[in-house]
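Budget justification aside, the reviewers requested a transparent look at the raw inputs and outputs of the sequence design task funded under Objective 1. We therefore reproduce one unedited record. The lines immediately below are the structure tokens for a 941-residue chain.
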């Protein structure tokens, strides 16, 4: 997924003059947070080096795995033991002026120890530090104004003891008298968030130069006329004008289509949903006014950014700030804890805690009211297919998504949905746009799927209907239009690697669920009066990454061969702590003995960045990259399905560099010992013959060496025994050359390198290790992907197809999912069990989106504070065919295939598969999700 600039307000690793310290907790006295878990049992690895269970599995089943939400001040080393608590009051009306809060219902005994209103924040110099309305313009609703969004907080109440806090919160909940409103007034939500349009006309075939495309020319950006996007005029002038001319050509061709073409037009709707992560947003913050240290313990997917934004927030206020000490814990959020405003409300609570730690934690009602939502989408699609050839001639789609009252990533989600809409199909002519609308709704963000679930589900439903209208098998129609390797996407970019959708389609066509569907339908319905049977198919490919992925990883070994590994990645439930460790083992033959995740402070990486990877001009970037310590972005949060490929790239490159710079030369030295050049002399052995497994080093039939012996030799020679790398990807990898003392010039697919030398290194070389025992190696040259690559939208895809077998009760309208089968391609599986878990969990979420989950957007929606799981229906095991689900994974093309990010794609294909199955079952199609029993009854009435 692509984004607008997320951190153009952040300039260096030291924000606003405050030192940033971000760490994950290890072992407080009364509680445990296990980011780097206790060493697993001795049986955690199988004899082949594969894991029997996750690194954190024992901690999970024994209750030792704790989340950020589980911690109180007494559990945190160095914190006071007294714990204060806070909660927020919220506006449930957005069309009446806020006049204040009425707390007389609390009496004297339950009055808060501190009441904080907007006016207090203004007096103390506290403002939202992020420009562009990303988090809105105010934390709390000012008196005399309307709320920007339903559910926006109006006041913060802080209590020094839990009993009074709990009693007050219970007393005020659902009481409409507490927040006082005045006269009616217009809504005050911000201006709409942005509109982008992607137009492409190919050059006559998929491989010729495009006549027009975003990558070759430009993305078209628009303003707004009311709630509708306003695009630049067409013409022969600049690139946007030419793009609008191309769009007009496509529109004219569609209007002129004759009887030889099927022209299918539909409007689709995908609803707002709550991701329903089991851990609601929470944080515990202690501001120590005597030291100026802001201690934070928060649940977040982006700890680096939370620390920096918090530093800027406090530094602009009257509160002195010396250090931000952020401790983050295990969390899960499906994107909703990535760039959420909630951690900064926790900061406010801490600042007004009178020197005591303050815990602010949503309960489930508050989470529905405040938590980031998946965007509602309205999609206006047109598909033109040649009747004779079944080839798609053109497709257009113009989308709106409702971002609510804070911008967050709404604009980005909108245009990512537009760039994904082609799904697995080659489109010779296409025109897709996304417009992000501001409203009084609860804000929506980077929830799992990121706009692509909405747009690709509509495309797949449309393709299925087109096949029916053309009397063509739905998989055959897909085969006729499948996107193949080397073809261009709707942005004009050639995707990375081999696209294997055709292979998946051929497998799917032969699957019994598809092959026998008509026979089984007749048999089932004859045996089950009042029930209708159907099988549906959905097939999508999902991008992964943001177009500005950055990571840091470090691997080193001591003289005994003990491996230490550190990484910026942290665990949000995906198993990254397990998979990153296994990646090290796959290359170095043994998993690390010591691991450190979520490491954000890297003294050996003194990089400089303005964090403008999406907005910087090519000229500015060319100038800045002359500085060997500059990088477009320092590090990425845990999001965008970026763990296994992007964050794993840093892991793999650090391990490979250690092989080249230390293990291979040390092993050569050992094999060369003895008369006549030793055991290696009679053989021809190359670097590519090197193999590491089970703690042993082998190559070309030479005597096996233990990793400990090789490590000892590397240290004796003073070779490089530690490597830290920084990587950057803008839809392709940055590469740099380094002159490494004692090792010569090396070109690596990273943009920064630090090294550590072995014990026997000469004094002059050891003197270079000035950064916490490391030497930062200034690069001799660097090649960053051109900034024009931003217009590619995406080049990395992972595909997945899913069959859904359903039964519809025509009396009640209830849909029962009998079974589902998926076919996926994900390159090399690092840990197959984790892939399986992602498939099962993702499909469950997709089933909920297709059949059950729904949130009204406005006054009767979650912003009113009355929503919980008693009103919001989630799928349960009985709803997701938990015992009859199956999946198959295409084998990699070779053992060198890279892994692909699949955490989002796994939830998408099931949505249109269910919609298409229902259509086959009852002969009615639905264009609005979810497909509820009530909608089915109405359709059959």
């Amino acid at each position: 997924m692509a984004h607008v600039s997320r951190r153009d307000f952040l300039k260096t690793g030291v924000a606003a003059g405050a030192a940033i310290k971000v760490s994950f907790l290890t072992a407080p006295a009364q509680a445990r947070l296990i980011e780097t878990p206790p060493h697993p049992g001795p049986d955690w690895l199988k004899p082949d080096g594969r894991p029997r269970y996750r690194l954190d599995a024992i901690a999970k089943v024994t209750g030792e795995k704790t989340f950020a939400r589980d911690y109180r001040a007494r559990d945190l080393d160095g914190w006071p033991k007294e714990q204060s608590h806070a909660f927020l009051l919220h506006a449930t009306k957005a069309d009446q002026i806020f006049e204040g809060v009425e707390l007389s219902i609390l009496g004297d005994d339950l009055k808060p120890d501190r009441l904080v209103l907007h006016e207090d924040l203004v007096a103390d110099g506290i403002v939202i530090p992020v420009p562009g309305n990303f988090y809105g313009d105010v934390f709390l609703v000012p008196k005399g104004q309307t709320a920007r969004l339903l559910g926006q907080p109006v006041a913060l109440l802080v209590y020094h003891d839990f009993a009074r806090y709990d009693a007050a919160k219970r007393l005020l909940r659902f009481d409409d008298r507490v927040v006082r409103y005045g006269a009616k007034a217009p809504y005050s939500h911000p201006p709409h968030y942005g509109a982008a349009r992607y137009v492409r006309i190919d050059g006559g075939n998929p491989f010729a130069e495009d006549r027009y495309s975003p990558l070759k020319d430009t993305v078209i950006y628009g303003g707004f006329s009311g709630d509708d996007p306003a695009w630049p005029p067409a013409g022969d002038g600049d690139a946007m004008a030419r793009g609008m001319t191309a769009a007009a050509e496509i529109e004219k061709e569609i209007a002129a289509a004759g009887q030889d073409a099927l022209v299918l037009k539909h409007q689709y709707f995908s609803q707002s949903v709550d991701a329903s992560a089991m851990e609601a947003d929470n944080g515990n913050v202690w501001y120590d006014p005597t030291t100026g240290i802001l201690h934070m313990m928060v649940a977040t997917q982006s700890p680096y950014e939370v620390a920096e934004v918090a530093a800027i927030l406090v530094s602009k206020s009257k509160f002195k700030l010396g250090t931000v000490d952020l401790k983050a814990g295990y969390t899960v959020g499906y994107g909703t804890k990535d760039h959420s405003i909630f951690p900064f409300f926790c900061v406010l609570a801490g600042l007004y805690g009178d020197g005591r730690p303050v815990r602010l934690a949503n309960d489930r009602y508050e989470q529905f009211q405040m938590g980031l939502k998946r965007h509602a989408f309205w999609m206006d699609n047109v598909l033109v297919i040649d009747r004779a050839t079944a080839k798609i001639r053109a497709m257009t789609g113009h989308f709106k998504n409702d971002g609510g009252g804070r911008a967050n990533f709404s604009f980005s989600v909108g245009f990512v949905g537009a760039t994904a809409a082609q799904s697995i199909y080659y489109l010779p002519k296409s025109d897709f746009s996304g417009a992000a609308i501001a409203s009084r709704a609860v804000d929506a963000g980077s929830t799992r799927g990121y706009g692509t679930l909405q747009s690709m589900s509509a495309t797949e439903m449309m393709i299925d209907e087109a096949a029916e209208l053309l009397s063509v098998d739905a998989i055959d129609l897909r085969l006729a239009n499948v996107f193949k390797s080397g073809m261009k996407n709707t942005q004009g970019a050639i995707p990375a690697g081999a696209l294997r959708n055709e292979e998946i389609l051929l497998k799917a066509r032969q699957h019994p669920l598809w092959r026998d569907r008509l026979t089984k339908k007749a048999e089932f319905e004859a045996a089950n009066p009042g029930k209708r049977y159907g099988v549906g198919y959905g097939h999508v490919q999902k991008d992964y990454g943001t177009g500005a992925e950055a990571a840091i990883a470090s691997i080193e070994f001591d003289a005994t061969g003990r491996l230490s590994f550190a990484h910026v990645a942290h665990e949000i439930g995906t198993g990254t702590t397990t998979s990153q460790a296994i990646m090290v083992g796959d290359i170095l033959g043994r998993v690390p003995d010591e691991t450190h995740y979520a490491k954000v402070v890297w003294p050996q990486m003194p990089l400089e960045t303005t964090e403008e990877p999406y907005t910087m001009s090519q000229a500015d970037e060319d100038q800045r990259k002359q500085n060997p310590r500059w990088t477009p972005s320092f590090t990425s949060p845990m999001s965008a399905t970026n763990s296994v490929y992007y964050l794993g790239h840093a892991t793999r490159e650090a391990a490979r560099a250690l092989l080249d710079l230390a293990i291979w030369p040390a092993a050569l030295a050992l094999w060369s010992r003895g008369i006549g050049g030793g055991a290696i002399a009679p053989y021809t052995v190359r670097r590519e013959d090197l193999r590491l497994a089970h703690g042993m080093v082998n190559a070309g039939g030479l005597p096996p060496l233990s990793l400990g012996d090789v490590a000892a030799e590397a240290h004796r020679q003073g070779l490089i025994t530690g490597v830290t790398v920084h990587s950057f990807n803008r839809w392709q990898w940055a590469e740099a050359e380094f002159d490494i003392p004692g090792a010569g010039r090396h070109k690596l697919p990273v943009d920064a390198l630090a090294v550590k030398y072995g014990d026997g290194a000469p004094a002059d070389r050891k003197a270079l290790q000035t950064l916490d025992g490391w030497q930062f190696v200034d690069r001799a040259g660097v090649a960053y992907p051109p900034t024009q690559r931003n217009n590619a939208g995406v080049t990395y895809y992972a595909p997945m197809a899913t069959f859904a077998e359903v039964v519809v009760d025509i009396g009640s309208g209830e849909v029962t999912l009998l079974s589902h089968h998926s076919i996926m391609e994900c390159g090399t599986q690092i840990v197959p069990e984790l892939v399986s878990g992602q498939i099962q969990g993702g499909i469950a979420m997709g089933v909920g989106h297709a059949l059950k989950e729904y949130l009204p957007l406005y006054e009767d929606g979650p912003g009113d504070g009355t929503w919980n799981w008693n009103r919001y229906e989630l799928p349960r095991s009985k709803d997701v065919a938990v015992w009859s689900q199956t999946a198959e994974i295409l084998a990699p093309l070779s053992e060198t295939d890279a892994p692909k990010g699949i955490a989002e794609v796994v939830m998408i294909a099931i949505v249109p598969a269910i919609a298409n199955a229902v259509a086959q079952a009852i002969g009615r199609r639905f264009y609005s999700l979810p497909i509820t029993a009530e909608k089915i009854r109405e359709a059959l009435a």
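The chain has three domains: 69-188+281-361, 195-272+374-545+794-940, 549-792. DSSP finds 21 helices and 35 strands in the chain. Computational costs for records of this kind are itemized in the attached budget.
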